[in-house]
Design goal:
mainly alpha; 2 domains; Retinoid X Receptor; HNF4-like_DBD; binds zinc ion; DNA-binding transcription factor activity; two-stranded antiparallel sheet; 14 helices; elongated; transcription regulation; RNA polymerase II cis-regulatory region sequence-specific DNA binding; Erythroid Transcription Factor GATA-1, Chain A; Znf_hrmn_rcpt
Length: 392
Amino acid sequence: MSPFENMELSEVDSMYSSSASSPSSFTSSEECCAVCGNEVVNSSRYGAPGCLGCVVFFRRAIVRNSTFKCLRDGNCNITNEYRCACRFCRLQKCFTVGMRPEAIQRRDLVGPRSPVDPKPSLKSLIDPVAVTENNIDDSSNLLQNLVLLQNQQTFKATQYFTENNLLSSTESSRRADSNDVNLMFKLCMNQASEWGRQLKPFKRISIEAKQSILAEYGFAFLLVDQGFKTAREAKDGFWILQNNTFMNADYFLGMPEGYEVEKTTNKKAELHEKFVTDLLNSVAKPFRDLEIDDIECAALKTVLLLTPSFSKRAVYAGQEGYVASVHTQCMEELMEHSLNKFPDRGEERFGEILLLISSIRCGIKAIYNQTRVSDVFNFTEFDSVVKDILLC
Ligand SMILES: [Zn+2]
Ligand SMILES: [Zn+2]
């Protein structure tokens, strides 16, 4: 059962609209979706104001040349709550309110929108041409390109761990120590900044602004990556890092022999237990329950980059237009992906994925706190590069 069963999609919509960079800030607040009445308008580019669900619905219906049938008299009431019930009447309503098929851009029609191959060829992993700067945000397939980058990053990191003897075997996994944690922070800061460089709004801000975003986003990126891996590969109760080392709520599990127990050890063990339990419950469990896939993982990383916490929002000043357009594209592709994956409950699925963002933010707070008290997260031993970023 999904942990978000009781949330209404409208709550997700309003969460999505509460971000300062959301496209809805470009439309007047009185405007509603002309099709279903949803208060959060995504775009009017097809000829009438439409919410994300209705915009994606209209485009899919046109692009796929779908024909629907009404099971009643062709006069169903399309509201936010029941909009999925009758596709025939929903599409009729799209036309009635003025959405025009010819307004669908060529990009929408020609872009390869087939589901991504889960195992890209080795060539596409190694070949740096597969993902080149500048072409990502103009591409019709933002998320699929980012999944390629994601695969490249995992591949390169694993290669690095192997070459430097840092990879723990999966069968007899080793307890993560402060070197592992430090290394994963560095790795994720690098990967997060590489991710950002693919996206125009991030690419265009000053170095100081980038650092300020990365101080927070690096953690978000790390949590999504490790949560994703943990959900798919770890045994119950274990949180795993990118090099397969683990953290368990039991602080002493896997402790090297000859470990000296100090006065503060019990306190540390207590905090460690709370911390690991928090990560497992707020991130790994929902990722596992929802069986998050590569595209959804890439979408989460992207949305988190574009919607930093309130105190950091100002760093995108002057780039709001770019932020909104990348955000809209990411949301539309995620919605489309959800509808492809779950034709009957795609919109609900989309909402469940977006709700993970607040769980991830809780996890970020847990990490911040833990870096101050833990010896596994021993801040004083951290690399100066990581420290500089964390302190800014
Ligand atoms: Zn709508
Ligand atoms: Zn109908």
